[in-house]
Amino acid sequence: MFAEEKLIPVPFDVYRFDPAQGGEPRYQHYELKLAPHTPVLSGLLKIRDEVDPTLALRYSCRSAICGSCAMLVNSKSRLACRTPVGPEVAKHGRVVIDPMRNQPVLRDLVVDQRGFWSNYRRIEPRLLLDPSRPMPEGRPTQMTPAQVDRFRETPRCIACASCYSACPAVEADPEFPGPMALAKLYRFVVDPRDGAHDERLRKVQLSGLWLCLRCHLCTEACPKDVRPSERIRDLKELAVRSQGATERGSRHAVGFLENIAEAGQLNEMKLVRQTDGLVGTVGQLGQGLRLARKKPELLKKPRTIDGVEEVRKLYEALQKDEEVPL
Amino acid sequence: MRFAYYPGCVAQESGKELDLSTRYVCRALGIELVEFPNFSCCGSGFLDEANGLLNVALNARNLAIAERAGLDLLTICSTCQGMLTFANRRLERPEVKAKVDGALQPLGLAYSGRTKVTHLLRVLANEVGPDRLRSMVKRPLRGLKVAAFYGCHLLRPADELQSESAEEPHEFEDLIEALGATPVLYRGRVLCCGFPILFVKERTANRIAGRQIHDAKAHGADAMATPCPLCHISLDSFQNKAEREVGERLDMPVFHFPQLVGLALGASPEELGLPRHLVSTRSALEKLGSVAVPA
Amino acid sequence: MQRHDVVVVGAGLAGQRAALAAAQAGADVALVSKLHPLRSHSGAAQGGINAAVGAEDSVETHIYDTVKGSDYLGDQDAIEFFCQSAGPTVVEMEHFGTIFSRGEDGSLARRAFGGAGFPRTIYAADRTGLALLQAIYEHLGGVPVTTYEEWFLLSIVVRDGRVQGIVALDRRTGAVEGIAAKAVVIATGPAGRVYGRTTNAHSCTGDGIAAAYRAGAYLKDMEFVQFHPTALLESGILITEGARGEGGYLKNRLGERFMSKYAPHVLELASRDVVSRAIVTEVNAGNGFPGGYVTLELMHLGREKVESRLQEICDFSRSFAGIDPVTQPIPVMPAQHYMMGGVGTNIRGETNLRGLYAAGEAACVSIHGANRLGGNSLLETLVFGKQAGTAAAAYAKDAPDAAVTPADVDRETAALHALEDRKDGESPQRIRADLQQTMDSRVGIYRNPDDLHRALVEVRALQARWRAVRVEDRSSTYNIDLTDALEVGHLLDLAEVIAVGAIARTESRGAHTRVDFPKRDDQNWMRHTMARRTPEGPELSYAPVAYTRWEPKERVY
């Protein structure tokens, strides 16, 4: 059952760079022999211990709980401690190690996480109490099973920044606080002890919530199955329900909702008007006309689907319902 | 093969060329498309943000319509694929299903979860298969270097979509190869096109699209191809703006996936709606020599 | 030079709780840690935190269980205070935002733990440490505390009979700086990495304990090292006691629940020293699986329970051992897990040095005595972290100004340069590997005098080798080779104290099992070992155990 695994050759190509020493980033090659289930971290530590003690990286618990050793393993954001070398070698023939993305390299695999942490602090990650609802004296708060169920995923987060590294919105726009911060915010927004839900939802709409691309790269990168993209979706719905269609993002979402109720399918130009308002739409006019030359349908009212009244009935039945955790 | 055809909103309107080329390809491959004029929009990820339950219910209705006809559902849009599959997954939760059942019943519809949702690309990759496809190619796309652009919702979340691999897929490249073209591997192929925030913060969206196009180009691509009409909007319709954001001329023809297949199966550019693109596909077609390049 | 009233070194639960208490008492507080606070090893604690809050349970029973679990080496006055603080501490952490697991009625859920009379371990799935660490870090975010993230402690400065502050290395820039403080709280956790087979993180290198020892503080009861019964066979990764608390079985190759032979009443839920010895005894008797291990079975608990209450365990087993605990037994063996010993303190966290405080696993109050009960360590960090922080702030209020001089800083800078300037010498990693080999093989669960003496000889030889250690890395940024060398120096100091204490203690008590003295000897050994550093090595003396009400009895589970 636990037969000794045969050792396999594991070629490592590890990113090396020390800005203090100058020079260009390069890859350093190391040849190891390891059992296929050996975690990448163990391989890197073996390099440090036996071959090259100058390799810099962060690590601590080696059991996927401290969040230190996130890095790119063959371009994928991974915790080195829980990524076995075998499948990587099988697929890529080698193990290429790079520092995480979206954080400047301090040295080798060590990145500067100050931006990551300051984005996390931006969402005020602590209970904010409503003075009119103090904590019960001398005893814990009570929670309903439904309230407890809201904490299914987020407490698993170990702040390893794998999601932050994988996120194209972080890469493209400093306004976006990143998946981890938003998943963390969700954890506070659904916490019955917190007294600032609406305020939090109002603020986050102004600080990047609607820049999430829903690309789910964070959910794919997350080693703890926090599923940040899904938590961000939850936050958006809670924001719409709490604040209404106040921002471009929420206007677009609500516009979409109304659009479908009307015709059962999308009216692209109308949606632009709903999101941008009249002035914004005029700003888009040039591009709109440019597109319409090739795609004249944009100027026509789209067809209404058969049975649109069924769609409206669904709306009537469910639209007023409370939000259901998905 | 017979499917309930779910073209999605864009392919019925501004992205008609996608519908045109899909019909061409399915005809050629013997895939029968059954139409349902009562299908609604999938919500496109936006409705989901305003009201998740309603979004699930809307797609449960679509799925129930296909189920009533005893057909699985075929999408041609990564986002439709994602949203319909998402509904199937969420309806596995009893509390969600109970609510949705209650709303569907008065419509005389029932959702059981039997209807599978698949995308044309996955049908070609898995049901038809690259080998059979290769055997049907009339005009191999030899010499054309094509950068696949998957579209997020065809791949992720991988556990929900049961996609082959969210981070290192190869279905699309395998098909490109079967068509005689050369697939280009680049990081951007599995990344986002920026479309979801095109109406929220256009310049950021354009920048994201621009980076992916730049990446494809830097890896030598003559053209890109996508199985998602929303990606197509970002990459083609807004390429002029993407160019502004990345500060370079990109001139990258972007094919809808079935257009690429159609070309190899012998269709003319007009039959595939290529003239409807904002970025001319001429440079790519010229590489193929044998295709009559439209004026 | 930086200056604060109170500097807390170590930012795990004890350190953060101390910083919070000191800041709330009005002190200007700095928190210094070689890791980002959320990366601290407290976060790896899985099982839970004890508090006798159940209707059927009582503080009195918690005290008794802890005294008994300590094999009567715990100070009973401290244990009384500790257990009385448990309920309020858990409530406070809940109010800070900890997401605990809850029962159907919405109250805090409790599970059974080893050596406890009732299910009194409150938990957050199997990541209780992480839940508490997040909550306190988040709460501390709203309090004015200066944090020095990724600063490595080099020395504690003592002058004029008082603590003056610390000298530390900024790992990001390589700068060596003095931080003056009237009071210093050591909360740097354990030195589990003296062993190779350990559940402890790589960072658990006893830096603060060693610095305190070098500064003249007494280390207490260092020979008492807890071996957790269930660590993954190969990696030594911890499988929480909660797995047995939830009903898991330990089985040998013959399919027997062998704990019936060793603890007929409570079986798998005997205290950790008992279970670890039983496992080693079984394996030595040839009842282990080939390769030498036993198994932990959870299969009979059903998928739903295993996956919901032991999420991390499922994840660990699947990713680190390729085992699915829902359907397969988990191969386990004991591994070093916890140090009962540490910097000697009283109930207020005060050490023998004026202005020096300690808390958490780096400290020894002592409440765990010769063996700690599961669920008591998280509680200890919070109860005594608060004590130490409060006392440090009160002391700092009236203490004279402290100063770290340029000479203090230069001395440390020179020491670092000496390491880096050496042309040849051994690598710190090589020395560390040899140390761990020595401690694993000679200072383990069962101890015999020959091995202990040989271990001491080997450790001292390693200390001599360390004096010629060579740091190859020359970078000023994130130089782990350098910090490795410093850490190994700390580990060697502490390994020596462990070995010396273990040689001297000619009895078996709690986690310290001498094969040549198999019985507890209350006549001669019901006392704490106190080790003070001298140029010749640790000098031992002994201190009495505090009694209140509980007479020593034989421990039967």
Question: Could you describe the 3D structure shown?
Answer:
The complex is a heterotrimer of chains A (326), B (295) and C (557). Chain A has helices at 40-51, 85-92, 114-122, 145-149, 162-166, 168-172, 179-189, 197-206, 217-221, 228-243, 248-263, 268-283, 285-294, 308-318; strands spanning 8-16, 26-34, 70-73, 76-79, 95-98, 105-107, 110-111. Chain A has a 5-stranded mixed β-sheet with strand order 2-1-5-3-4. Chain A has 326 residues and is α+β, with helices and mostly antiparallel strands. Chain A is globular, with a radius of gyration of 25 Å. Chain B has 2 domains: 2-119, Glutathione S-transferase Yfyf (Class Pi), Chain A, domain 2 (Up-down Bundle); 138-288, Rossmann fold. Chain B has helices spanning 9-12, 16-29, 46-50, 52-68, 78-90, 94-104, 120-136, 152-155, 158-161, 171-178, 202-218, 229-237, 239-246, 257-265, 282-288, and strands spanning 2-6, 32-35, 73-75, 117-119, 145-148, 182-184, 223-226, 254-256. Chain B is globular. The mean pLDDT of chain B is 95. In chain C, strands 1, 2, 6, 7, 8, 9 and 16 form a 7-stranded mixed β-sheet that branches. In chain C, strand 20 (527-534) and strand 21 (537-544) form a beta hairpin. The radius of gyration of chain C is 22 Å and the shape is globular.
